[in-house]
Structure formats: structure tokens, C-alpha cells
């Protein structure tokens, strides 16, 4: 029988772990969220992040800026948050309006407060397997893969997508687990033949129901990162769940799979960042 990799159930476990840890701190861990504009999905994601944070005792401070805001204003705000000892993490909700340079904004965040793990210093630390703040969605994907199998050594994984946010870091995390990783992208030829090599298949493309059962190896673990709307405005992933569930041995659903794990690992990163700033050793059992 197929194993459903239930992100909501795992999120609940992480919620309890975080709640316990927050209670032991003398300070209120605080996350600053910078949201620019009114991009509809971003408004929903920010609301979910605030709600989950509140449920574990993490405070959030929302800086909701107009789309016309200047780069200088954003950089000054980030500098102030970097210097504020009462702020332990800074989240820049992506995407930002095209008038702003997201790379410049990400690089302005102090790496020790970079809870999204997107600063080049943290990306480099991930690459070199040094302790740092790693991107949240890839950590959530790895958590779900471990629900399927703890020891991944020697397996083959195919990651479809190579963004800095998801594809590249999940490929790196899997490599650190001694998995042989193939990274596919929009220029990959014969994609179906490649994806069928994967004992693990992670899909982060952003195309609704792009992966059907003929892309999937029998018994594979399939992680669906994609979030899109279908023609009836229902949330769907990159994987055609109904078709793929007949060949995979484990699959993460959309919604209720990777999404809740991303929020969970954002708050885990916030706790890590907070403890680093307070010179505390963080012991989080998942
Ligand atoms: P992105 O930056 O647009 O990257 C998409 C990747 O897919 C690119 O590397 C692109 O290749 C590749 N691609 C596009 N068409 C392809 C094709 N026909 N065959 C193979 N590869 C193809 O997107 P992203 O930020 O990684 O996000 C991907 C999806 O995950 C989106 O739906 C996003 O909403 C979702 N997401 C979900 C969460 C969550 O928490 N669940 C978090 C982040 C993102 P090239 O590099 O060659 O262009």
C-alpha cells in the first residue's frame, strides 16, 4: 500500500518540539517578515507563517510595504533589523516586485538572521557541509523522504528543477546523505527516461500535474514541491497524484505535504538563529 507522506502530521510533531524549546528561553524569539505588495499567494503564506509562529510562542513583526517602495528604503529597513537585538530572524517574502533586486535584498540580510537560508554565505556553508541556516523547503523535503526511509545511502535521486530556493539545495542535501543525485531542468533531454532512474523523485517545476506515472520508477518515493492552481482554482502540485500513486511506494500530497514542512523548518531555523545569537546550544529532537 502506498505511504502518504503527511506534512501536516509531521508539522504537528515539530510544533510540539518547538513549543517545548521556546518555553526554555528567557527571550521571546522574534521573526521579522518583510512583505512587499499584495501578491495573493504571498498574503496566504505570510498568514500561515504568522499563525504557526504564534502557535509555538514565536513572535512575528510584519513590515508590509507598498510595491512602490524604493530599494534604498528596503535596504535601510534590513540594516535596522540586522542591528536590532530583539529581532532574531529576517524573512523576505518572495517574490518581490520586479523593480527591486531580490539578490541585493537577500545579501543585505545578516547571515546569522537569514532564516530562509538564501544568503550566499549560508548557501556556501550548505555546499561545504558546514553548520549554517539551510533553506526551509529542501529541509522539509528531506524530512518527508526520511519518513519513507531513514538510510538513503546508495540510492539514486532525480531532482527536477534547479532553483536556488528548492532544486539546488535539495540536491545538495541528498548528496550529503550519500545519495547519487541527477539534477534535471528545462534543457534536460528525454526527461521521462531520466526521472525513471530515481528511487527518489523530487519535483520542483511549477507546472500543474506535469509528472504522470510514466515518469516514475516502480516503488519510488515522490516528493511534490509544486504549488499551482488548476482551471477550477484548486491547489495542485507538479505531480499527477491519482496516476502516480499507482506506481510510487510513497508520495507527498499537495496540499498537505511539503507546504507545512516549509513553515515548520522556517521556525526551526528561527530557533537556530535565536540560539546562535544568544550563544546557546540548540538541541532539537524531531
Ligand atoms: P523556479 O525558480 O521557477 O524553478 C523552476 C525549475 O523548473 C527551473 O529550474 C526550470 O529549469 C525547471 N523547469 C521548468 N520547466 C521544466 C521542464 N519542462 N522540464 C524540466 N524542468 C523544468 O521555481 P521554484 O521556486 O523552484 O518553485 C517550483 C515550484 O515549487 C513552484 O510551483 C513553487 O510555487 C513551488 N514551491 C513550493 C514551496 C512549498 O513550500 N511547497 C516552496 C517553494 C516553491 P531551468 O532552470 O532550466 O529554467
Overview of the structural elements:
The chain is α/β, with parallel strands linked by helices. It has two domains: 26-110, Rossmann fold; 136-259, Rossmann fold, CATH 3.40.50. It has ten helices and eleven strands. It has helices spanning 7-24, 40-56, 71-83, 102-108, 120-127, 136-148, 167-176, 191-195, 241-244, 258-277, and strands spanning 3-4, 30-36, 59-65, 89-92, 156-160, 180-184, 200-203, 221-224, 228-229, 235-236, 250-251. The strands form three sheets. It has a six-stranded parallel sheet with strand order 1-11-8-7-5-6. Helix 1 (7-24) packs parallel to helix 10 and helix 6 crosses helix 7 (167-176). The protein starts with a strand and ends in a 9-residue tail after the last helix. Bound molecules: NADP nicotinamide-adenine-dinucleotide phosphate. NADP nicotinamide-adenine-dinucleotide phosphate (NAP) binds at residues 137, 160-163, 165-167, 184-188, 191, 204-206, 225-228, 258-259, 262. NADP nicotinamide-adenine-dinucleotide phosphate binds at residues 137, 160-163, 165-167, 184-188, 191, 204-206, 225-228, 258-259, 262.
Fraction of residues in β-strands: 15-25%
Major beta sheet, strand line-up: 1-11-8-7-5-6
The geometry reads as: globular
Overall mean pLDDT score? Answer: 96
Which small compounds were modeled alongside the protein? NADP nicotinamide-adenine-dinucleotide phosphate
CATH topology-level fold name of the largest domain: Rossmann fold
List low-pLDDT spans.
none
Estimated radius of gyration: 19 Å
